[in-house]
Specification:
The structure holds 2 protein chains of 2 kinds. Helix content of chain A is 31%, strand content 24%. Chain A is α/β, with parallel strands linked by helices. The longest helix of chain A has 18 residues. The chains are: A alpha/beta, B mainly alpha.
């Protein structure tokens, strides 16, 4: 398997009034071709900042990549490009964004430009990256809308975002993201803001498109159900660090990190027998303020199984091939 | 779009009815003797006549409803009475002065709006850096400077020292040509009329006289448009769809133009409309400083001399302008914001 993206020891810091927050603090992972990688964790764990680092879309005055590398491996076997070294506004970075790597955002209601029709917004990428003329691009836009399951695409292409529902808008966002056949798609909680029934439709659509286009996806979510449905492999993040990495099957069968266990226990069970046995067990406490991190295992203050050794921060230990965990319990 | 505009136009009569009722209500504060000036056609009518007879002739002793209908009929016909201060019928006074005001407003509006938007986006793009600070200082100074000071400074530098932009509307030689038979006054706006007559000497002369007041007004109003544009751009900059635009790989220039500025312009249209209205109503101080005889001077003089007919007439005219400008702003809204169009 060849990698599409290889992130090594990425550190992205955010400057706030109270000091520097290490939002992403030494994260390493890779995504294989045609693989769907899930990234889970509560809000504030650095999932979105990791994604925005890869896209070089960080709000430039507050956040920046301090060190580490993000290697993108192009399709035709060309030498890999270290995105972390590129200037976010450079031509080189812009030719990757939208063309090689695309992104779908959490809020479909606010992610489309209200003063242009959806057609105009889809053809923007086509005109930019595919060197099409306007007429060809419009025809392609109609095809794309049809492809993402929008009825009457010939009419819808001329509509404005406010004429569409949230689910429709997210489909349009997907159409925009897929317009230039990207190799790698980052989806930042693409279904969180949608109704449950619409969520299922959108996930279904993404799964189908991933297989049709042979895309790799990095799926950011805090929903373990979405992980089970969509992903091949999972990265569990806590306070800017990877705490567990495993194949999806492994994560559900034998979760090793107490935090992963906590996340799984907070999913309501549908099976009535199971439900009677164990109640929902929430993780105690909240994600602490990242600017106040001291030393030791970052999860220790909330961990039910913390012991003396947790004063020291554990390394990422490979328990089995492909299953790594950052916890002293599995030394 | 068409439906939207049609609906706006259909609502106009209602607005106008409300406005006229309001003015009529305020007119009730005046005695019939004071109102008489709004009804007569020339001061000759008053000679050797008992005012009470005239009041009866014009129905000023009739019930309110009857008086309102009669007054509206007069207004529609353009019979606004005799202006003592201008020494001519009110209608003629307005028609003589309004072209000057309109010409000045049109000349001022273009640099103010475009310059203001450019300054505003420049400041927003350099938020909290030197470019932003300097732009804001420049604009705030203009806004804080009273126009009688700004106008006098302009006059002193560009007329007194440099001799470029003289006061008045035309030079004496040009005025003689304009009032002669060979020159056709199509609009009363000298620059436009000069072009229509093909007389370039007059055009340049009229233009030279316009630059001083235009400059004064522009410097005054830049801050107004600039500040709204700046804050609206800063607001828009952090919107999710701007990030979407960047995620497509669009160059920053396109992101600013299509994603930030086109959305930030919506509130600018509103304040620009208000500003145009203010300019069309006449700018008394600038007109005085530059001896530029427009509607503002007419109204101010009339008010000073207790010329009720002219005050009422210009008020009526101003309300009419207000309704028209608001309609234009509403239509412009639909052009900048598709959400308005389809409601």
């Amino acid at each position: 398997m060849t990698h599409v993206i290889q992130v090594d020891d990425l550190r992205t810091y955010i400057k706030t009034e109270r000091g520097v927050v290490k939002a992403v603090d030494g994260v390493s992972f890779s995504v294989d071709e045609k693989e769907v990688l899930g990234v889970v964790g509560e809000s504030g764990c650095g999932k979105s900042i990791t994604a925005l680092s890869i896209m070089q879309l960080l709000p430039d005055r507050f956040a920046s990549i301090e060190s580490g590398s993000i290697n993108y491996i192009p399709r035709d076997g060309n030498a890999s490009i270290d995105i972390a070294r590129l200037n976010p506004k450079s031509r080189e970075m812009r030719s990757i964004r939208g063309k090689e790597i695309s992104m779908i955002f959490q809020e479909p209601m606010t992610s489309l430009n209200p003063v242009y029709t959806v057609g105009e917004q889809i053809i923007e990428s086509l005109l930019l990256h595919e060197k099409m003329n306007k007429k060809e691009a419009m025809m392609r836009a109609v095809e794309l809308l049809k492809h993402v399951g929008i009825p009457d695409p010939e009419l819808r292409v001329r509509e404005y975002p406010h004429q569409m529902s949230g689910g429709m808008r997210q489909r349009v966002m997907i159409a925009i993201a897929l317009s230039c056949n990207p190799r790698f798609l980052i989806a930042d909680e693409p279904t969180t803001a949608l109704d449950v029934t619409i969520q299922a439709q959108i996930l279904d659509l993404m799964k189908r498109l991933q297989q049709e286009h042979d895309m790799s996806i990095m799926m950011i979510t805090h929903n373990m159900g979405v992980v089970g449905l969509m992903c091949d492999r999972v990265l569990v993040m806590y306070l800017g660090r990877v705490v567990e990495e495993a194949k999806v099957r492994e994560i559900f069968k034998s979760p090793l990190h107490p935090y992963t266990l906590g996340l799984l226990n907070s999913i309501p069970k549908l099976n009535p027998k199971e439900r009677k046995k164990d109640r929902l067990i929430p993780i105690a406490g909240n994600v602490p303020d990242p600017s106040e991190i001291v030393t030791g295992c970052r999860f220790a203050p909330r961990c039910p199984r913390a012991f003396d050794k947790c004063q020291e921060e554990p390394p990422l230990i490979e328990v089995e091939t492909g299953h790594k965990v950052r916890c002293w319990l599995h030394e | 779009m068409f439906n939207y505009i049609l609906r706006r136009i259909l609502s106009l009569p209602v607005v106008i009815l409300g406005v006229t009722l309001l003015i009529f209500l305020m007119m009730q504060l005046l005695s019939p003797y004071q109102l008489l000036a709004s009804y007569i056609r020339s001061p000759e009518e008053l000679k050797n006549k008992d005012p009470d007879v005239l009041i009866h002739t014009y129905g000023l002793d009739r019930p309110a409803g009857e008086r309102y209908v009669k007054w509206i009929q007069n207004v529609i016909r353009g019979d606004l009475g005799w202006s003592n201060s201008a020494n001519m019928p009110v209608k003629e006074a307005i028609l003589a002065r309004f072209p000057a005001t309109l010409e000045l407003a049109l000349f001022a509006v273009i640099p103010v709006i475009f310059g203001g938007i450019l300054l505003g986006s420049f400041a927003a793009m350099h938020h909290n850096r030197w470019g932003d600070h300097l732009t804001r200082i420049f604009a705030i100074v203009g806004w804080s400077l009273p126009s009688f000071v700004g106008g006098l400074l302009v006059l002193m530098i560009f007329y007194g020292v440099l001799g470029w932009f003289p006061p008045g509307r035309l030079s004496t030689w040009a005025y003689q040509i304009v009032t002669s038979d060979q020159f056709v006054n199509y609009t009363g706006m000298y620059t436009l009329d000069a072009i229509l007559n093909g007389n370039w000497a007059i055009f340049w002369d009229a233009l030279r006289h316009l630059i001083g007041p235009t400059l004064t007004l522009a410097y005054l109003w830049w801050a107004f448009i600039m500040r709204i544009t700046r804050s609206s751009m800063l607001d828009t900059m952090n919107k999710d769809y701007v990030r979407t635009g960047r995620s497509k790989g669009l160059p920053e220039r396109v992101v600013v133009k299509k994603y930030i500025r086109s959305n930030a312009l919506i509130p600018v249209v509103t304040v620009a409309g208000l500003m145009v209205l203010g300019l069309l109503g006449g700018v008394v101080i600038v007109e005085t400083v530059f001896d530029f005889k427009g509607l503002g001077l007419l109204t101010a003089t009339a008010a000073q001399q207790l010329d009720y007919a002219a005050v009422l007439g210009t008020t009526m005219f101003y309300c009419f302008l207000l309704v028209i400008v608001n309609l234009i702003v509403d239509i412009l809204y639909a052009f900048v914001d598709p959400r308005v169009r389809l409601e």
